[in-house]
Amino acid sequence: MRAAIAGQSLDCCVLLVDIVPVANAGKTFRRVLKARLLRAALGAFGRPMPADTRGLVVIAPHPDDEVLACGGLLALAAKAGRAVAIVYLTSGESSHADCCDVGPSQVAREREQLAISAAGELGIGGASLHFLRLADGAIPTQGGEALGPADASVAAIIASVGPCEVYCPHPLDCREDHVNASLLTQAATRQCGADCTLRFYLTWGYFKLPLLAAVRLLRARPWSLDIGGVLGAKKAAMDRYCRQLAPCGQPYVGKLPPGFVEFFISGRECFLDRP
After folding, report:
1. DSSP 132-161
2. What is the CATH number of domain 4-273?
3. Which residue, 35, 122, 126, 207, is most buried by CB atoms nearer than 10 A?
């Protein structure tokens, strides 16, 4: 049975694995192929995203995660006139640690300005952006139901939007800040008192999840969103992040693996419900 995904099909992707000697392929090829297979499978087994007129809140561990995972979703929400809030937990100031002479405070300032520019490409104004400036690499989590300052800040922003959808990294997104961002957001949604639906996205998980964990995601009936109509806006937003270079010649968002950004410039975004 063929499952059409963004002009391709799942069995075509599987055929690629049969034709190409993956064991002998380069590391980059294997990583990107695995990510594309997972996204194709999520799309094949996913349900079409339902239309929603409520507000939208996207939680980003660092400036650029919101565009990579949810750029199309955000652009569609802005186009539809929905209330939108983007919460940047950190400013990504560690992206050039031990790389060049640019200090973390300058990196943070640059990345916040890039976030504002990227949001503008998606049709979202600066008043909808919230920079919490938590320590990059040390997003806090709270045990049980107790709220800490970070949780309380996120809960207050969600409550201010009112009834809404909330999107944050999946607990299996394979980076500590992303996992902690997920736990923090789950705690905040439990405490904010707003009528909200929590959904999860992947960034690093596409590339790093073990096979068994990826199969479990497919059993969770993911959601699939067609963003073809706003793909140009998402690409323009991502270009804002990637084209601004630090003195070392690398983007302020840091040196990302080959093929990583290009992977997310796709006509489809996939999301998952609460694990």
Report:
1. EEEPTT-----STT---HHHHHHHHHHHHH
2. 3.40.50.10320
3. 122
